[in-house]
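User: For a reading group we're discussing how well predicted structures match intuition. Take Carrier domain-containing protein. Before you show the prediction, I'll give you the sequence so everyone sees exactly what went in.
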Amino acid sequence: MSPTSAPTVRRVLSEVLGLPADSAALHDGANLFELGLDSLGVVRFIADVEAALHLRLPDEQLHAGLFERLDRLVACIDAQRAESAA
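Assistant: Thanks. Here is the predicted 3D structure of Carrier domain-containing protein, as structure tokens, for the group to look at:
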């Protein structure tokens, strides 16, 4: 299995949210909306993470609930990476 996308996701989120890259706020259970992610931030995050990981996240997989926990978001991205690699 390929390595997790978690480090890249955390780095991109830290840039979008203006947090330090090693911020403890970006833990697995973090609600990204509570950290200040808004609709424009979601769009920027998606574009940046797709570019960083060389993948396309299908629109139908992207819903508000996905951003309520960082670990859910990482799991979705990892699943898409695995599907793209197959």
